[in-house]
Design a protein that fits this description.
By secondary structure, the protein is α+β, with helices and mostly antiparallel strands. The chain is built from two helices and six strands, in the order E-E-H-H-E-E-E-E.
Length: about 100
């Protein structure tokens, strides 16, 4: 499902910059055909895939704004032992925040 959904533009230990696919990607066609929108859980899956994390517990997740086709998203990362905090920014505005534990 994630195949072709995003492109990594930049990545380091503290940040990941990604660009989402166009509205022709199957996930946007399914959610929703007339108003394509990235499902909230999918941004969690994208970050876990990029970081190669196996999430065992989501401590907090909030979705503030819409993530749309072709959006460029900056993921700011903070790691503490088994816990990762990811803040998703679009145009320097916070769109999502996820705190999870992984193996």
């Amino acid at each position: 499902m994630l195949s072709g959904l995003y492109t990594i533009l930049m990545q380091n230990d503290e940040e990941i910059l990604i660009e989402l696919a166009s509205k022709s990607h199957p996930i946007f066609k399914a959610h929703f055909p007339t108003h394509p929108l990235l499902p909230g859980f999918t941004i969690i899956d994208i970050v876990a895939e990029i970081l190669n994390h196996k999430i065992i517990y989501i401590k907090q997740s909030k979705f503030i704004g819409q993530l749309l086709p072709n959006d460029k998203l900056l993921c700011r990362l903070k790691h503490n032992e088994n816990q990762t905090t990811v803040t998703i920014l679009k145009n320097e505005k916070e769109m999502s925040k996820i705190i999870y534990e992984s193996k």
